[in-house]
Design a protein that fits this description.
Layout (H helix, E strand, L loop, with lengths): L8 H13 L6 H4 L10 E5 L2 E4 L4 E4 L14 H13 L9 H12 L5 E5 L2 H16 L3 E5 L26 E4 L4 H10 L4 E6 L17 H11 L3 E5 L12 H4 L6 E4 L10 E5 L4 H6 L10 H16 L2 H22 L3 E5 L6 E5 L3 H13 L2 E2 L14 H17 L1
Parallel strand pairs: 3-13, 5-6, 5-7, 7-8, 8-9
Antiparallel strand pairs: 1-2, 2-3, 4-10, 9-10, 11-12
Helix pairs in contact: 3-10, 4-10, 6-7, 11-13, 12-13
Length: 406
C-alpha cells in the first residue's frame, strides 16, 4: 500500500469554528481522542469505514466506541428504524415495538426475565443501582478501581470538576480479581452494601485489560448471595461481543441485573437494563424516565440488530476475527523491532507498545491514523462483523509503515 499521509486542513478549520460555539470545540470522550494530526469531524460512514470532512477514508477500529457492531448504515437495521419512524417516533403512547424488543431480550439473554429501556449506558447503570438500593434497603455501592460505569456523580472521582465529595460517599472500591479484598470489604460493611457493579472483565483506560481469574465470578456470586448484595454486570461495552446470551454466560455465573447499551441498536440511541423475576416487583416501583426513553425507531433498530447478531453468530465471528487481527499486528510489530501487547477479549483489543514510553506509543497510533486506520491511544478498540480479511492486510501494512516512522 502506498505510504500516503493524510491532510486534515478542513477538520482543523472546522474545529476552530466549533470552539467559538462549543466549549472545547468537541467535548466528552471524543475530546480525548483528538490529536493535532488527526481528523476531528466525519463526512459519511459505511460498513467498517468512515470518511472525514477532508475526504480521507479510514478503516475504523473504534466503531464509534462500540455501537457499530454490524457496521455503519447496516441495511436491515436502517430499514427497520426508518419504517418505524414513518409510523411514529416519540408519541404520547408507547409503541408495540417496545414489547417486541423486551421479548427479544428475554428470549436471547440468559439472565433476563424483564427489560427496561433508556438512551445511554449510564441510564442503565444508574437505574440498576437505584433498583438495588430499593430492593435491599441499603446504600453503599462496591465497584472496581478504575471501573467505568458512566458519568453520574456517584461514579466520578471526587476531584472531578463539578463533583462534590458527598456524591461518592457511599461508593467503595476494590481491586479487580481480588476475592480476598472483596470478602474483607463485605464483612467490614456488613448490612450496608446494596450492590456490587462491574464489567465482565476489566477494561480500564490507558492500562492492559485483564480477564477474570478462574473461579473469580463464582466466588463473587457466593459472596454477594451470602451478604444480600445484588450483583450488577455492566455489559454496556462488551455486551454481545463475548456471548450473545450475556457475557456472564461465558464466565459461568448469573447476575441479578445486566446493563446493555452501545451495540444493542447498532448506533441508534438506546440502552437496556434486564433483570431477574426476584426483583421485578421492585423494578416496577422505581421511578426513572426521560422524554426520549420511548422513542420507537431505536427500538425497531435494536430488534433488527439482535436478529442479525444471531443470524451471523456475531460474538464468535468477531472473536475469531479479533484473534487474526491481533496476531497479524503483533507479528508486524515484532518484525519491526517492537513488542505490541494485545490484551482483553479479541473483539475489543487494547493495544500497548511495551518497552517504550507513552509518547512513543501515542506516536505509533498517530502514524496509523495519518495513513488511514482510525485508532486511539488510551482506549480499547472494537471490531465489527463487517471488517474483512482485506482490512486486516491494509491495517497491518499501515501499522508497519507507522513502525517505520518511529
Amino acid at each position: 500500500m502506498k505510504n500516503t499521509i493524510y491532510d486534515v486542513e478542513k477538520s482543523d478549520e472546522l474545529l476552530r469554528k466549533a470552539k467559538e460555539v462549543i466549549p472545547g470545540g468537541i467535548f466528552g470522550h471524543y475530546k480525548y481522542a483528538i490529536r493535532d494530526s488527526g481528523p476531528k469531524f466525519f463526512a459519511k460512514a459505511q460498513g467498517a469505514y468512515f470518511w472525514d470532512v477532508d475526504e480521507n477514508k479510514y478503516i475504523d477500529l473504534m466503531c464509534a466506541y462500540g455501537p457499530s457492531i454490524l457496521g455503519y448504515n447496516h441495511p436491515e437495521v436502517e430499514e427497520a428504524a426508518n419504517s418505524q419512524s414513518f409510523k411514529g417516533n416519540t408519541v404520547s403512547l408507547a409503541s408495540p415495538i417496545m414489547v417486541d424488543l423486551a421479548t427479544a431480550l428475554v428470549d436471547m439473554v440468559d439472565a433476563a426475565d424483564w427489560a427496561l429501556f433508556g438512551k445511554n449506558g449510564g441510564d442503565s447503570t444508574s437505574l440498576a443501582v437505584m433498583i438495588a438500593r430499593a430492593a435491599t434497603g441499603k446504600e453503599k455501592i462496591v465497584k472496581i478501581n478504575d471501573g467505568y460505569h458512566g458519568v453520574a456523580p456517584w461514579m466520578q472521582d471526587k476531584d472531578s470538576p463539578g463533583i462534590i465529595s458527598s456524591d461518592s460517599n457511599h461508593v467503595l472500591k476494590v481491586n479487580w480479581n481480588d476475592l480476598d479484598e472483596l470478602q474483607v470489604l463485605f464483612e467490614k460493611h456488613a448490612n450496608e452494601i446494596a450492590c456490587f457493579i462491574s464489567s465482565p472483565y476489566d477494561h480500564p483506560v490507558s492500562k492492559d485489560n485483564e480477564l477474570p481469574k478462574e473461579g473469580y465470578w463464582e466466588g463473587v456470586s457466593k459472596l454477594c448471595k451470602k451478604h444480600d448484595v445484588l450483583l450488577i454486570i455492566d455489559d454496556v461495552r462488551a455486551g454481545f461481543r463475548i456471548n450473545l446470551s450475556g457475557s456472564n454466560v461465558e464466565y459461568g455465573f448469573k447476575p441479578d441485573l445486566i446493563c446493555f447499551g452501545k451495540a444493542i441498536a447498532n448506533g441508534h440511541a438506546l440502552s437496556a437494563l434486564v433483570g431477574t423475576n426476584e426483583i421485578k416487583e421492585v423494578a416496577e416501583k422505581v421511578y426513572f424516565t426521560g422524554t426520549q426513553f420511548f422513542s420507537a425507531p431505536p427500538m425497531a433498530a435494536a430488534c433488527a440488530t439482535l436478529k442479525e447478531l444471531k443470524k451471523v453468530d456475531a460474538a464468535n465471528k468477531m472473536t475469531e476475527y479479533g484473534k487474526k487481527l491481533n496476531e497479524s499486528l503483533v507479528n508486524a510489530a515484532e518484525q519491526s523491532g517492537f513488542d505490541l501487547i494485545a490484551s482483553g477479549i479479541p473483539a475489543m483489543p487494547y493495544y500497548r507498545l511495551d518497552g517504550v514510553d507513552t509518547k512513543t506509543h501515542f506516536k505509533w497510533i498517530d502514524e496509523c491514523v495519518k495513513r488511514g486506520v482510525y485508532m486511539v491511544g488510551y482506549h480499547n478498540h472494537f471490531v465489527s462483523t463487517c471488517h474483512s480479511d482485506e482490512d486486516i492486510e491494509s491495517i497491518t501494512d499501515i501499522a508497519r509503515q507507522a513502525f517505520s516512522a518511529l
